[in-house]
Design goal:
The chain contains 6 helices and 9 strands. By secondary structure, the protein is α+β, with helices and mostly antiparallel strands.
Length: 258
């Protein structure tokens, strides 16, 4: 459609794109200066933290910010956990790109096995043009239903006495969402990716698969794909280590083929 000569017609290229969709609940806790936030006491703590880091390589600046997490089931009858939680020691809005005053903490709830599938397409024949990416997040109602249950489970956890004693309050973005319909609207307004896209060069033997079990592109000689796009289905967790494993396996395959 862009006037590019076709050397090999492989319709599965760019199909089956999917990702871990995620939504964050932010808790306002004005007096918790021990957490990261924008305030005069918070700024003084960070300045002291910089000194401690330089002096002893210890202190508050050693944090990875997402200090705890867990895998949970959105309902007891699930065979395996279908949600992942990340607890963050600050008020995280738009991946930290938006400046938020005050102190507090946040919790992500992430859908581990989304059913929705998107696609990647060319925008034009210009190789420097950005592609058209349609993630189709929450295209399947089952994905939304699991996240709605996940938000409710997350609230239960954040409401436990160990955290409730600090007097934090849910931020305005989500506090008014109590019914399933309201929670769904909150999710649609605020859900985002946590950067785990896979599937657009799916491995398998079918007509819409792109690479075989040795990562060779079907129907072509001398071309392999070695990255997360070959995953037929996203792993139920972070994709970094599995992608490294894919690359290490590809090295072995290439050495054996030499």
């Amino acid at each position: 459609q862009h006037g590019i000569p076709v050397l090999h017609d492989l319709p599965g290229v760019g199909m089956h794109l999917h990702d871990h969709v995620d939504v964050v609940q932010v808790m306002d806790a004005p007096g918790l200066y021990e957490l990261f936030g924008l305030s005069l006491p918070g700024a003084l703590r960070i300045l002291r933290g910089i000194g401690e880091w330089r002096r002893a390589r210890s202190g508050m600046l050693t944090t990875n910010f997402a200090e705890s997490g867990g895998f949970i089931k959105s309902r007891p009858e699930e065979a395996a956990p279908d949600l992942q939680l990340h607890f963050v020691i600050g008020k995280l809005v738009d991946h930290g790109r938006k400046t938020v005053l005050g102190h507090g903490y946040s919790c992500h709830v992430c859908l581990l096995q989304p059913k929705s599938r998107g696609r990647v397409q060319l925008a034009s024949s210009d190789p420097n043009a950005l592609p058209l990416v349609d993630p189709n997040f929450l295209g399947e109602q089952d994905d939304m239903d699991r996240l709605v249950r996940g938000v409710r489970r997350m609230r239960e956890i954040l409401g436990q006495s160990a955290l409730a004693k600090f007097g934090a309050r849910e931020s305005k973005a989500s506090a008014g969402a109590t019914s399933d319909a309201q929670i769904e609207q909150f999710i649609r307004n605020h859900a985002d990716t946590i950067y785990h896209p896979v599937g657009s060069c799916r491995m398998g033997p079918g007509p819409l698969d792109v690479v075989d079990a040795e990562l060779r592109v079907h129907g072509l000689q001398g071309l392999r794909v070695v990255d997360a796009s070959i995953m037929p289905r996203v792993v139920s967790g972070n994709t970094n280590a599995p992608t490294i494993m894919i690359a290490e396996k590809a090295v072995d395959l290439l050495r054996n083929a030499a």
